[in-house]
Amino acid sequence: MVKLITGTLIQSYNICKRQTWLMAHQIIPDQDHPYIEMGRLIDEESYDRDKKKINFENVVLDLVRSDEGDIIVGEVKKSSRAEESARMQLAFYLYKLKESGVNARGVLLFPEERKRIMVELTPELENELEQIFKDIERVIFQATPPPFKKIGYCKNCGYKEFCWS
Ligand code: SF4
């Protein structure tokens, strides 16, 4: 089951389970949505000095640096408003790396806010992730998406047109 799960699904799970279902069912969000576009630009332009993309199974790591022998995996984010979902997404990448025998630490980078947050894969965080994997499975194997419920994130969501029409 973990193979079906991506960092994007983990991130969406912490924001909106309807979004998780829509993504898992290959319903493509509005790619012209300004928030998505801005995220793409930040992803392309920020931290160029350190830029290195690594494809890892179904995971794309935005940035990998070795600092005094440690492996540090970085994720660039537009804003820290969804900090918890970003933290769990990065924890998922650390989990996948550990499964392959690579112990890494993570850092969340918020270039617009000049902020960074370290993420360590503790046993508690691993347990939390494993519970999330099970619940994502429960959500995405439902025949229909969870019902629409307006939340603050909706106005920035690529599925807005889909959900609000
Ligand atoms: S528009 Fe709102 S309810 Fe619909 S997927 Fe996005 S966040 Fe969820």
What does this structure look like?
InterPro entries: CRISPR-assoc_prot_Cas4, Dna2/Cas4_DUF83, PDDEXK-like_dom_sf. This protein has 165 residues and is α+β, with helices and mostly antiparallel strands. The protein has one domain: Alpha-Beta Complex (Lambda Exonuclease, Chain A), CATH 3.90.320.10. Helices cover 41% and strands 18% of the residues. It has helices at 7-13, 17-24, 34-45, 83-99, 123-140, 160-164, and strands spanning 54-56, 59-61, 63-67, 70-76, 105-110, 115-119. It has a four-stranded mixed beta sheet, covered by helices on one side. The protein has a two-stranded antiparallel sheet with strand order 1-2. The structure holds iron/sulfur cluster. Iron/sulfur cluster is lined by residues 16, 18-19, 22, 148, 151, 153-154, 157, 159-160, 163.
CATH class: Alpha Beta
Instruction: Work out the number of β strands.
Output: 6
- With strands numbered from the N-terminus, the spatial order across the biggest sheet is 3-4-5-6
Give a quick account of the main beta sheet: strands, pairing sense, barrel closure. Answer: 4 strands, mixed
Shape: globular
Number of helices, where a helix is a run of at least 4 consecutive DSSP H or I residues: 6
Radius of gyration, rounded?
16 Å
Number of domains: 1
Distance between the termini: 33 Å
